[in-house]
Amino acid sequence: xxxxxxxxxxxxxxxxxxxxxFSFSNRSKRSLKIVxxxxxxxxxxxxxxxSTGSVDPALVAVEKDAEKEFDVAESKIxxxxxxxxxxxxxxxxxxxxxxxxxxxxxVEEELDRSSDLILLISNYQxxxxxxxxxxxxxxxxxxxxxPVYVIPENTRYAVxxxxxxxxxxxxxxxxxxxxxxxxxxxxxxxxxTILHNEKxxxxxxxxxxxxxxxxxxxxxxxxLAFSLKTQKDIVSAIEELSQETDPDLLVLLKEKRGFFExxxxxxxxxxxxxxxxxxxxxxxxx
Length: 286
Fold this sequence. Notes:
By secondary structure, this protein is an alpha/beta fold. The protein is built from twelve helices and ten strands. A ten-stranded mixed beta sheet has the order 3-2-1-4-5-10-9-6-7-8, with helices on both faces. Helix 1 (14-28) packs across helix 4 (73-87). The protein is globular.
């Protein structure tokens, strides 16, 4: 069975994250595995590589708190999951793992077991924010090879009616959109809007847009809509469309360069992950 992997490393918003993971897994008819990771030692060593002198007391305090949470994580998660299942009629195969293996290796190991894996993570960077930036970790979106589904804070229920896929015209688009249609097939009336932004929409750009639309229509069988924006950047285009349709999910293709960096490096917003307060699903090019 296709699997969703919820990766946790703290109790921050744990009830909401687990509730959303069950809700999303139920709607998408996928199994759910929750992995609680305590890989603070790996990050502590990374911190020490670039530091001199004694370890910052803030780092020590956060490590102790994280270790305390880890010691009782299994019982805590089973309690939260059990409470959710008592209150909601969901039929989701569920598994739980507690580990001290670094999280990137955890994801790759799970990917070996299930090739159709979606990683679910919070948009809250627990260790980094708790230590005031003393501890960092490689960006999971950048370093794992499976799709990454980022859940915003204070979100408990997965709704998959209006989905927006932002494109800059790539040959992978039809494959990704077909995967989205498959993901949405259990959500009655779900629609996928394909968004493109073109700052200067001249004759050649118009022909390219029309050709792209016809190509997608021949390659994809689903409830599709198309939206062309002429904003200064793709973040502004997503914002305009969001005001029109109030999407439930934003979907992006992480390119090796270009479009993806424009979205996540925009000067007028911290990032799409927090600016729109919407779930974001990121696929990878190739």
